[in-house]
Design brief:
heterodimer; A: alpha/beta; 4-stranded parallel beta sheet; 6 helices; B: about 300 residues; globular
């Protein structure tokens, strides 16, 4: 029996940068357990949440993504012992920087999800998708003038 | 005061204790000063110091300028209190060792915000914003100081929020974005803010790399946003607030507001004050297991 899928006017595009030891395995578990979660999320697997350079997040926002999730192992569980502690400090500063620059912090999410927490993963994704959907498209960056646009239009 | 500094500089050069003295000299017109590299004892009379000496000279101590490769073993530098904080931060980041530099500290009552504002004297209208809350008018750590150096208590947390930062934080997010869009619309990516920064240490800057192209080279607003966020992010907990980036900006964009804001964040969250300790690690290369994580799900 098929589940009823709700229709929305706007489907947000969401990027998730995840650590391969915890969150990616957690998402994998959610998949193999056939759990439902919103299909808006695109995942990028990285070795550790400490590997997630703020540059990645800047670039994703620049390229027109509506929301970004950063996720890794719980503190103390890092495969490399301390990567997620560095990530925590870095993201604290980065959030404040984006806030000061004028990007709504509702569009940036940081979470700890272990390999066993498939249910938490689905909940975080669903809640975040709803939140970004309520915020609407991330127009601010879209509206910045792209000097290459008219080349594309001409072609 | 300047006579004592010149005498000391002459002695140092004659005794070969230092290979060069970096200081300030008269510039191209009466409102300007210029950084000067003195290598001969007879040239020390060019050295001056007054409120027009606004350049941050520790810039030349950064490894990216490769001055030690010229065979200079020890560099003498004339430094205001804020410059000494920059030097301390460079030492904390292993850009140089304390033995490589001979610091000639100068008492400073504040400097002008820009050469063009100089009208013969320093007053509230032309003083740089960093000087209002400065606690290093008397330098912290120096090898030579003209006259007696009084002890000053600097343990209190420093006040960093410039009035403009507080104004911006009072706006809502969309208004802030509009403000920055208007400001960054003028930026044409001359990278003067990078070139004057004493703490921009990368040998090849991320914006000069085209493979992969993290920050767009074109001077459209998208790339400008990426550049300024990247620059601020690279300076978290390292910026000592010399304000050179804003002074050097040809389009009068207040690019140091990002740094001011992050200094607040770093002090509140990690209890770190940049430029006061040669041994303490900058906040982003260390961690505590009980760091704040109220933003994390």
């Amino acid at each position: 029996m098929s589940k009823k899928i709700p229709r929305h006017d706007f489907e947000p595009k969401i990027m998730a940068f995840v650590c391969k030891w915890c969150t990616y395995s957690g998402a994998d578990l959610a998949g193999t357990s056939r759990m439902d979660y919103s299909p808006n999320v695109r995942m990028v697997r990285l070795p550790c949440s400490g590997r997630i350079d703020p540059q990645f997040l800047i670039k994703t926002f620049e390229q027109g993504v509506d929301g970004v999730i950063v996720s890794g192992c719980h503190p103390g569980d890092c495969h490399y012992n301390e990567g997620n502690y560095y990530a925590r400090r870095r993201n604290l500063a980065f959030r404040q920087l984006l806030d000061f620059q004028g990007i709504d912090l509702g569009r940036l999410e940081f979470s700890w999800i272990s390999a066993a927490e498939a249910i938490k993963w689905t909940k975080v994704i669903d809640a975040f998708t709803d939140r970004v959907r309520a915020l609407g498209p991330h127009k601010q960056y879209h509206e910045l003038i792209d000097p290459y646009d008219h080349y594309l239009e001409a072609a | 005061m300047i006579e004592a500094i010149r005498t000391q500089a002459r002695n140092l050069l004659e005794n070969k204790e230092v290979d060069v003295i970096i200081g300030y000299a008269e510039g191209s017109d009466s409102t300007r000063t210029t950084p000067v590299f003195i290598r001969k004892p007879e040239e020390v009379s060019r050295l001056i110091f007054d409120p027009r000496c606004i350049n941050s000279l520790p810039l030349y101590l950064n490894k990216r300028h490769e001055y030690p490769q010229k065979g200079w073993k020890r560099t003498g530098i004339i430094a205001k209190g804020c410059d000494i904080r920059a030097i301390t931060q460079l030492i904390a980041e292993n850009q140089l060792t304390r033995e490589e530099v001979y610091i000639i500290g100068v008492p400073c009552d504040g400097v002008v915000s820009h050469f063009s504002k100089w009208d013969g004297r320093l007053h509230d209208g032309n003083q740089a914003t960093k000087c209002a809350e400065c606690d290093v008018h008397t330098p912290t750590d120096c090898d030579f100081f003209p006259g007696e150096r009084p002890e000053v208590d600097r343990s209190a947390p420093y006040k960093v929020s410039a009035p403009q930062v507080l104004n911006l934080m009072g706006l809502n997010t969309d208004k802030r974005f509009d403000y920055w869009r208007q400001e960054f619309d003028r930026c044409f990516k001359c990278y003067a803010c990078r070139e004057v920064c004493p703490h921009c240490s990368c040998n090849i800057c991320i914006t000069d790399r085209t493979q992969p192209n993290w920050v767009d080279q074109a001077a459209h607003t998208k790339g400008v946003f990426a550049w300024h966020i990247t620059r601020a992010m690279h300076l978290v907990g390292r910026c000592t607030g010399c304000g050179e980036c804003t002074r050097a900006c040809p389009m009068d964009i207040q690019v140091d507001l990002f740094n001011q804001r992050l200094k607040d964040v770093v002090q509140e969250s990690f209890g770190y004050k940049s430029g006061y300790s040669q041994d303490e690690k900058p906040p982003l290369i260390t961690y505590k297991t009980d760091d704040s994580e109220d933003f994390i799900q």
